[in-house]
């Protein structure tokens, strides 16, 4: 039965039009996962793809002869002429087809590369100091050497604009997934696994980063800022897995953790492992989720055994067993044998310092460190742990990748200084010099343009609850212009508020629609097992509405959710970008993001309104279609830097946990901020009972009580 029919309490509901159905993110696949493209590029890309198809017929025989793991084949071409373009000047801006570097049919000239990258809004920048960029040995021809030298001499006199231009790169983009094998020679099994996922068109972030990470030029350290749901996971996993396949081929005797992927939550880490397992099948590469009690580091016990991972998640009880083992017994636990370890920061830091010595154990074999949601990993909350992990990776050829949809310039500075300090501490240099590049897709720190944002003034907490109940009853919602159908997520500011809101709503779904089992709450106070079960049931469609905290704001991919409700406003613009990015994944249209705000929230709403405004501008369309009008933006107050900081750390003060329980009232007028921890249903029952008792005592009072009961029937969830 249909969600909407089940959830509505009205029999007069009109069936939804098929047009609006097909716009729901939960129905079907996105036609094209790319967010930015132009007709001109479409044409250019299909011409290029056409050329390649012809070429591939000619080279097919060659490629069939290429052994599976021939990574050093002479017909391999450099992917990104990073250093060639590093010294671009004003003249380069006007580059013509004549200047283009084109040595065979298959290559793209610089004009084409620029056209494609610009139309997909991909910007690649060399983040190193200019002197560093320019001392790199680069080209093979004399003329290029001369050009380079003259640029070096010019460097000190470059204006800021010229320096920016000099840092700008135009690497060759990936036009289709087949090129992964035909051009970048990734392992054939890995290429098959990618093909099996059924993706046809690479997303912008894949189009831009895969050539950089798989090309012949020395692998760079990479900062990537790309929209939510744009396929960053595949972008970092393919190169990591391919590098390990190569490594196994060239160093068959070296076993241990070669790659680390760090993510801020267990949910995200576990999702990355699931994605990874699809890609590693049959490649000989192992990917494992870090578990409590695992031994991972090199703490001097070189002769430690190696534990054979079975690639299955262990149950909670096994975790606890391992964790509770006395130190002596723990020393006998074999060191984990896995090529890729996916972990949250604290869990790995605990494992690395498990022997309680002053120094942490090291991870000497790790060559790739991926930080997913890097800005939060390097935020004060996780910073120390993340930097400890980074520094425990002691191989001089370590490459780092920092990935997120939002990244402040402070993170870029921290990355640069950490790369430098780590090498100084090591006292060793990498075997080949390499760049630190930044790739940005779209506008940095903006929300995806393919969702509808609704910023709703609800005045009070009661108003928010009323609005949310309307969303749960689509017939009532027709009075407003918001039509949000399950499955969707509801975000609150704190765990107690999530728990209370869940209790409030759990009987709002009629029994014939599955009742309270359709709505659940997920937060970090639940056990790992409970959290996994809820995630599984939400993915399976058994849970339709999930009330949660910012635990699920980042990274988690529920392919077909129709929307997100910010029941409590997010603590920062970045959190807004991530929360709403749980819908509209892989280019899907029709996702809705509803944000309620009350009068207490007014000081904090401007940054959210700005994000919505920019996202609507990115989307294009008529001025009148915009949900954020200029007068509103002008009217909303700006927040001071300190208040922003405070908001980021604590959220809206009036909504903090201690004032939220049933009994508490601080007497300062914050009573209205409470969400009762009893469900609306339970309170309606109680009210009914109270009314009945009164009725037996006093007929007159009973009449009045029955009036109240009917009030409570509709609004029983607000205040006791
Ligand atoms: N080329 C593609 N075509 C279609 N779908 C894709 C493609 N690449 C990835 N996807 C799908 O897009 C969804 C989002 O991918 P992913 O979780 O990697 O996004 P993300 O960029 O990491 O998002 P977030 O910033 O929220 O973490 C996934 O369901 C993934 O399977």
Automatic annotation (TrEMBL):
Compositional bias of kind Acidic residues: 309-322
Subcellular locations according to the entry: Nucleus, Nucleolus
PROSITE patterns, per database record: HELICASE_ATP_BIND_1, HELICASE_CTER
Region (Disordered): 1-110, 133-165, 298-331, 642-720
Keywords: ATP-binding, Helicase, Hydrolase, Nucleotide-binding, Ribosome biogenesis, RNA-binding
Record-annotated Helicase C-terminal domain positions: 467-636
SMART domains according to UniProt: DEXDc, HELICc
Composition bias type Low complexity, residue spans: 79-88, 701-713
Pfam family, one: DEAD
Catalysis performed (reactions): ATP + H2O = ADP + phosphate + H(+)
EC number assigned by the record: 3.6.4.13
Gene3D superfamilies: P-loop containing nucleotide triphosphate hydrolases (3.40.50.300)
Gene Ontology CC: cytosol; nucleolus
Residue spans of biased composition, Basic and acidic residues class: 39-48, 151-161, 660-669, 680-692
GO biological process, one term: maturation of SSU-rRNA
Any one GO molecular function term: ATP binding
Function according to Swiss-Prot or TrEMBL: ATP-dependent RNA helicase involved in 40S ribosomal subunit biogenesis. Required for the processing and cleavage of 35S pre-rRNA at sites A0, A1, and A2, leading to mature 18S rRNA.
Subunit structure: Interacts with the U3 snoRNA and is associated with the 90S and 40S pre-ribosomes.
Name of the protein in question: ATP-dependent RNA helicase ROK1
């Amino acid at each position: 039965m249909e969600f909407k029919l089940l959830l509505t309490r009205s029999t007069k509901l009109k069936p939804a039009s098929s047009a609006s159905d097909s716009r729901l993110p939960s129905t079907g696949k996105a036609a094209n996962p790319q967010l930015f493209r132009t007709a001109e590029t479409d044409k250019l890309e299909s011409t290029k793809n056409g050329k390649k198809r012809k070429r591939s017929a000619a080279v097919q025989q060659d490629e069939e002869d290429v052994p599976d793991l021939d990574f050093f084949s002479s017909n391999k071409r450099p992917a990104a002429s990073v250093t060639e373009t590093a010294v671009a000047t004003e003249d380069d801006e006007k580059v013509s087809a004549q200047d283009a570097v084109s040595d065979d049919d298959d290559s793209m000239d610089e004009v084409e590369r620029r056209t494609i990258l610009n139309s997909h809004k991909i910007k690649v920048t060399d983040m190193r100091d200019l002197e560093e960029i320019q001392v790199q040995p680069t080209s093979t021809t004399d003329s290029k050497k001369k050009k380079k030298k003259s640029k070096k001499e010019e460097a000190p006199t470059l204006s800021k604009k010229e320096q920016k231009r000099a840092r700008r790169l135009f690497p060759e983009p990936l036009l289709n997934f087949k090129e992964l094998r035909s051009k970048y020679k990734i392992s054939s099994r890995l290429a098959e696994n990618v093909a099996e996922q059924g993706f046809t068109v690479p997303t912008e972030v894949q189009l831009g980063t895969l050539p950089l990470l798989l090309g012949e030029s020395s692998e760079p350290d990479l900062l990537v800022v790309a929209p939510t749901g744009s396929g960053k996971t595949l972008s970092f996993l393919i190169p990591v897995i391919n590098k390990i396949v190569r490594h196994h081929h060239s160093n068959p005797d070296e076993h241990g953790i070669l790659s680390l992927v760090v993510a801020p939550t267990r949910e995200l880490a576990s999702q990355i492992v699931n994605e990874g397992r699809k890609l590693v099948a049959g490649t000989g590469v192992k990917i494992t989720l870090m578990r409590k009690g695992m031994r991972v580091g090199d703490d001097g016990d070189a002769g430690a055994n190696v534990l054979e991972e079975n690639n299955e998640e262990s149950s909670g009880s096994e975790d606890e067993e391992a964790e509770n083992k006395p130190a002596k017994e723990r020393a006998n636990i074999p060191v984990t044998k896995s090529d890729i370890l996916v972990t949250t920061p604290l869990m790995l830091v605990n494992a690395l310092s498990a022997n309680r010595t002053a120094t942490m154990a090291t991870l000497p074999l790790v060559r790739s460190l991926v930080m997913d949601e890097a800005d939060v990993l390097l935020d004060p909350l996780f910073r120390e742990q993340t930097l400890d992990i980074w520094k425990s990776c002691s191989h001089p050829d370590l490459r780092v990748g920092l990935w997120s949809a939002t990244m402040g310039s402070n993170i870029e500075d921290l990355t640069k200084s950490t790369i430098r300090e780590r090498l100084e501490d090591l006292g060793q240099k990498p075997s080949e010099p390499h760049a630190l590049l930044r790739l940005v897709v779209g506008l940095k720190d903006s929300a995806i343009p393919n969702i509808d944002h609704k910023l709703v003034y609800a005045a009070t907490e009661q108003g928010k609850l009323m609005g949310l109940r309307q969303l749960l009853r689509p017939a009532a919602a027709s009075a407003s212009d918001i039509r949000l159908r399950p499955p969707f997520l509801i975000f609150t500011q704190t765990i107690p508020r999530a728990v209370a809101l869940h209790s409030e709503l759990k009987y709002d779904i009629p029994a014939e629609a599955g009742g309270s089992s359709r709505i659940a709450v997920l937060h970090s106070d639940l056990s790992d097992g409970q959290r996994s079960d809820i995630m599984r049931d939400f993915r399976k469609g058994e849970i339709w509405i999930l009330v949660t905290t910012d635990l699920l704001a980042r990274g988690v991919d529920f392919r077909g959710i129709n929307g997100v409700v910010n029941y409590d406003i997010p603590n920062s613009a970045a959190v807004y970008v991530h929360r709403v990015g749980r819908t509209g994944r892989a280019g899907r249209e029709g996702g809705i993001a509803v944000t309620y705000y009350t009068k207490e929230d007014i000081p904090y709403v401007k940054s959210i309104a700005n994000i919505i405004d920019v996202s609507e501008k990115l989307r294009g369309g008529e001025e009148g279609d915009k949900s954020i009008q200029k007068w509103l933006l002008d009217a909303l107050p700006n927040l001071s830097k300190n208040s922003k900081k405070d908001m980021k750390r604590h959220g809206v003060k009036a909504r903090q946990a201690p004032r939220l329980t049933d009994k508490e009232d601080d007497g300062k007028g914050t009573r209205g901020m409470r969400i009762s921890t009893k469900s609306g249903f339970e309170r309606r029952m109680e009210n009914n009972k109270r009314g009945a008792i009164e009725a037996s005592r006093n007929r007159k009072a009973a009449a009045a009580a029955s009036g109240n009961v009917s009030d409570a029937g509709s609004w029983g969830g607000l205040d006791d």
